[in-house]
Design brief:
The protein is an alpha+beta fold. About 35% of the residues lie in helices and about 25% in strands. It starts with 6 loop residues before the first helix and ends with a strand.
């Protein structure tokens, strides 16, 4: 049986604060059927239970600790849901009894997962045997009849597929360019037609589908953002170029940001950014390497994690400053912002939940503000370099002692922050998200919130309910805030009460 996790480790898996609170409420034996056998139990790496809910029958909740992976019959789209978290809290507290065999419903689900995994492994072994066979093996050696080695065939096939994809992207972007011209010819007011017409939101969805066919998922996400900007017959906000997490970038819809303001002017700015991306792709071979990498990532060209790990490493004590839950996209995810104590470099980690609820990278998903990690980070191609992946870990994550020990403290002020943002935009015109670490006073006037620094400069704070928590922690005094800057405001994600990190 797997060693029991701590309650903090369980709650670190939660997709948001509301899930943590709900799980704590449900983590009571009275919410669950009899805590034995089919009611609730644990065997090997499985924990299962029947939780009373709003439906007639109790929810069947199963957790595979080896993943971890989650299964619950409730309708929630969060991974893991509050029932799975509550079951793990009961298990971590020793309330769930150990059993010799899992309940039937837990065993059936687990066996189905194992069978699927085995089929996947068998398929991978077959593919590897076809593409990576040694040169002197019967399947790959040149038999003297002019047949090339399998490895050469594989390289040639990969090159051909890359060329075919590039051509599909080029053809798709050519269609998009004509579509953008049609929008301008028809007039931006026509973009307020919420459901159809040549310039309506429905047309943007159709063009997004065309971009998926063209293997340009980043552009598709930007177009879906455009269609979502049309509400009640009026254009109320801009979309975001590069909205999906593609290649080495993660911005747009995943960030909740906007590349420009609302109204027709904002929509025209979005069209202009899309047109700029098309023109940049046409000249991809002529661009500097860093800018070419940015364009590829915005379009949606994939970047292998293995290729990233093969690049140079940046070793530091990485402070975990902020975590952003990504719940608006089709796949729930988590964005984690780090900053090196010595290098003062920012890094952004991404991890996503699979359909079964298992995190793509559990160790990364568990990172929380107020901890630091001694590790090697490898950056994805692009400029400025932000997205990274963890390579070698030199120690387990540990709580920070004094948060501002060393040079990784808050930026000098808002003017310096905006200077950094301007320099970043110069390198990546499609950038919509930028990490921020600032000290200032929280000022509220109705629903308008600002963070004001010592020099009197102010940044607007994007309104969230957690701003009241930020105000309470500050008590009217200057406070340090970590978060994300978007063109429509600063999203506050973490503040500090003394040396204690408070997630917002």
């Amino acid at each position: 049986m797997t060693a029991r996790w701590s309650a903090d480790s369980v709650l670190a898996l939660a997709p948001d604060d509301s899930s943590r609170r709900a799980a704590a409420t449900l983590a009571r034996p009275g919410q669950w059927e009899t805590l034995w056998k089919d009611g609730a139990g644990a065997a090997d790496d499985l924990v299962w239970g029947l939780c009373a809910g709003s439906a007639k029958n109790p929810y069947q909740v199963i957790v595979d600790l080896a993943g971890p992976a989650f299964k619950c019959s409730c309708p929630s789209r969060k991974f893991p849901c509050k029932h799975a978290l509550a079951l793990l809290l009961l298990w971590s507290a020793g309330t769930v009894p150990d059993e010799r065999e899992p309940a039937d419903y837990a065993r059936t689900w687990h066996e189905a997962r194992q069978s699927k995994a085995e089929r996947s492994r068998a398929s991978s072994r077959t593919d590897a045997a076809d593409s990576d066979a040694p040169a002197d093996s019967p399947a790959s050696a040149d038999d003297g009849a002019g047949f090339p080695a399998a490895s050469e065939k594989s390289r040639a096939a990969a090159k051909r597929r890359a060329a075919e994809r590039a051509q599909r992207v080029t053809d798709g972007l050519a269609d998009l360019r004509e579509w953008l011209r049609d929008q301008v010819r028809a007039g931006l007011a026509a973009s307020g037609q919420a459901g159809g017409g040549p310039a309506g939101a429905g047309a943007a969805e159709l063009m997004a589908a065309r971009m998926i066919d063209a293997q340009a998922p980043g552009v598709a996400a930007a177009l879906r953002g455009l269609s979502g900007a049309v509400v009640g017959g009026a254009v109320v906000g801009g979309a975001v170029v590069g909205g999906a997490v593609v290649g080495g970038a993660a911005t747009g819809a995943a960030s909740g940001g906007a590349a420009s303001g609302g109204g027709p002017g904002g929509l025209l700015a979005e069209y202009a950014l899309l047109h700029l991306l098309i023109r940049a792709h046409e000249r991809l071979d002529q661009l500097p390497e860093g800018l070419a990498a940015v364009v590829r990532s915005r379009i949606g060209y994939p970047v292998s994690k293995d290729d990233v790990l093969a690049g140079p490493a940046v070793t530091d004590q990485w402070l975990v400053l902020a975590v952003r839950e990504l719940t608006d996209g089709q796949v729930p995810g988590r964005r984690i912002w780090l900053r090196g104590r010595k290098t003062q470099r920012w890094a952004m980690l991404l991890t996503f939940a699979a359909p079964n609820g298992a995190w793509q990278d559990l160790a990364t998903a568990r990172l929380r503000p107020g901890t630091e990690l001694h590790a090697d980070l490898h950056y994805y191609p692009g400029q400025p370099p932000l997205r990274a992946v963890i390579g070698t870990r030199h120690a387990d994550p540990a709580r920070t002692g004094s948060m501002w020990r060393g040079p990784a403290g808050p930026e000098d002020g808002i003017d310096a922050q905006l200077t950094h943002w301007s320099a970043a935009l110069e390198q990546d015109p499609w950038l919509t998200t930028w990490p921020v670490l600032l000290s200032g006073t929280v000022v509220s006037h109705g629903n308008e919130w600002h963070l004001v620094d010592r020099a009197g400069a102010a940044l607007p704070l994007a309104y969230r309910e957690s701003l009241w928590t930020l105000l309470a922690v500050s008590g009217g005094d200057p406070v340090t805030v970590a978060g994300e800057w978007h063109p429509n405001g600063l999203v506050a994600l973490t503040t500090w009460h003394g040396d204690e990190a408070v997630a917002l």
